[in-house]
Write a structure and sequence with these properties.
By secondary structure, the protein is mostly beta strands. 4% of the residues lie in helices and 37% in strands. It contains 3 helices and 33 strands. The strands form 8 sheets. Strands 9, 10, 11, 12 and 13 form a 5-stranded antiparallel sheet that branches. Strands 14, 15, 16, 17 and 18 form a 5-stranded antiparallel sheet that branches.
């Protein structure tokens, strides 16, 4: 596959005839009870600037709550003591921003000030607290970098005073060295299932079975961790270049109707991509159950087919279609190439699509456009948020936030370049080469050549869940450099390294058992908590 190389309490009371002093104190208490809001609200959808402090609100809700009375009210002052509303300050002094190759045990240090006195300084790595808050200067703790995956991480420090006021975060994007492939406490099994041939995409059924699309046309079944010998179905496909069986997804009501949807290259009447619905009978398809939903126009090139198909939370079927190496078609709203398409489950086109009234035929299915090769995309459970991974050409790989009618700019725009009016900039982007100095550009220390696989890790609620700091993250992979990163949606889309792989990944999913499954061309890797 040549181009693949390349998500208050109510206070009541009677004021009556309370003495003035008690009245004021009651009001102070009421204000303290009502102050503050949710400190864990998701940050704005912008990529974290590595050179600036990331001040996403999380942790103690006291950040916006001027709760305590000043302890140093001047002697003889009339009236009640004043509230302390002054936030402390903090500066992370080590490690420095963009420090690279950090190994072994390092010191995290910070300085902090406050008008009445700093109570403590808290340190975090990748959004998770490290150790206990340090209550006395010099503020520091020791960090064992060998417990973290080699690669990019974000170190933060925040101070708090006795009144509960907290500072913003002082941050440093850094790179840990060493060779750890997954964080401490995680297990990576790269031989969980072997024996696949040219795998391209996979999906999980409600009962835990995995369906794996092989480029040559076989849809394989993994049941209880075992690859079944007989395929679910064997299709006749054109598998030249990046053609073949390239997408699979179950119907949202699969448990009742047994419907599966496949995206593949049909050779009939000239190579063209097709989406069909099949009906399952156990581990195989019902003979003759194929219902062709639609055929895309004839293919010219062997590459940039896109491929991924998923149902959105709205019950609509979304289909990623590449530009077929005709980049000008990505901006042509009369053509389906270079687009994310949206259909009803029966293959008809929803009238709510953004260009339904202005286009005809398949072009009415266009939901978003300006894409080069959206080989993979993902839908966040519960919210329906969509992230589209677009494989770049010259300089950048992109994660785009899906939106009806969005134009992601290809071919006039790639990554952050030439993002003009009307173009939706990437949510996250990384370059094809390491920046100089390392870590200072968009994407930080991340660089690679073909973004593939994408999966939202839910907030939790099932056995085997990852620790809280690893949830509500978006996981993505790079086919060439063989890494998995994660984007922290709650912290200004900061990105951290999560895993390294021996084989090239092509797809990701989060299983119902809480594990992250990584599809390679010949095997499935399982990353889990023991």
């Amino acid at each position: 596959m040549s181009d693949l190389t390349a998500i208050r309490g109510r206070a009541t009371g009677r004021l009556g005839t309370l003495p003035v002093t008690l009245l004021v104190i009651s009001l102070v208490t009421l204000l303290a009870a009502c102050g503050g809001g949710s400190a864990d609200a998701p940050a704005a959808l912008t990529q974290q600037a590595n050179s600036a402090d990331a001040n996403a609100a999380d942790g103690a809700s006291a950040a916006n709550t001027p709760g305590a009375l000043r302890a140093n009210t001047p002697p003889g002052a009339d009236g009640p003591p004043a509230l302390d509303t002054t936030k402390p300050t903090v500066k992370l002094t080590a490690p420095v921003k963009f420090a690279a190759g950090l190994t072994g045990t390092i010191a995290l240090t910070a300085t902090a000030t406050d008008d009445t006195g700093v109570q403590s300084v808290t340190f975090q790595v990748d959004g998770a607290q490290v150790g206990s808050p340090d209550t006395a200067p010099p503020y520091s703790l020791s960090l064992d970098t060998e417990r973290y995956t080699s690669g990019q991480h974000l170190v933060r420090a925040r101070s708090q005073d006795a009144a509960g006021n907290v500072s913003g975060w002082s941050t440093a994007t850094v790179q840990f060295g060493g060779s750890r492939p997954v964080p401490a406490g995680f297990t990576r099994n790269e031989a969980w299932v072997t024996g696949l041939v040219g795998a391209t995409a996979f999906a999980e059924l409600p009962d835990g079975r995995l369906l794996v699309a092989q480029q040559g046309g076989a849809l394989r079944v993994i049941k209880a961790g075992v690859l079944l010998a007989a395929p679910f179905i064997q299709l006749t496909v054109d598998s030249n270049g990046e053609r073949g069986l390239i997408g699979v997804t179950p119907d949202p009501d699969f448990a009742n109707n047994g419907h599966l949807y496949l995206h593949y290259t049909s050779p009939a009447g000239g190579a063209h991509n097709r989406v069909s619905r099949f009906t399952a009978n156990g581990d195989t398809a019902v003979a003759g159950s194929e219902l062709v939903l639609f055929d895309l126009p004839p293919l010219v090139a062997k590459f940039h087919n896109g491929g991924a198909i998923h149902f959105g939370l709205d019950g609509k079927l979304y289909v990623g279609v590449g530009d077929n190496k005709r980049s000008n078609l990505a901006q042509d709203l009369s053509q389906p190439f270079g687009k994310l398409l949206r259909f009803n489950a029966d293959g008809s086109i929803p009238a709510s699509n953004p260009f339904y009234a202005t286009q005809t035929g398949l072009a009415r299915a266009i939901w978003a456009y300006g894409l080069r090769n959206p080989f993979t995309f993902a839908v966040q459970p519960l919210t329906g948020r969509i992230h589209v991974n677009d494989v770049g050409q010259d300089t950048w790989e992109e994660v785009n936030l899906g939106a009806s009618g969005a134009n992601y700019g290809w071919p006039g725009s790639e990554g952050p370049d030439n993002v003009t009016a009307g173009i939706t900039a990437p949510l996250f982007t990384y370059a094809h080469a390491e920046t100089t100095p390392p870590g200072t550009g968009l994407g930080g220390f991340f660089f690679g050549y073909a973004i593939v696989g994408g999966a939202f890790y839910p907030s939790g609620g099932f056995s085997g869940s990852f620790p809280s700091a690893y949830r509500n993250n978006y996981y993505f992979a790079d086919y060439v450099r063989r890494f998995i990163g994660r984007i922290d949606l709650a912290r200004n889309n900061a990105a951290y390294d999560f895993a390294s792989l021996s084989a090239a990944p092509v797809d990701l999913l989060v299983g119902a058992d809480g594990a992250v499954y990584v599809l390679g061309r010949t095997a499935v890797t399982r990353i889990s908590r023991p």
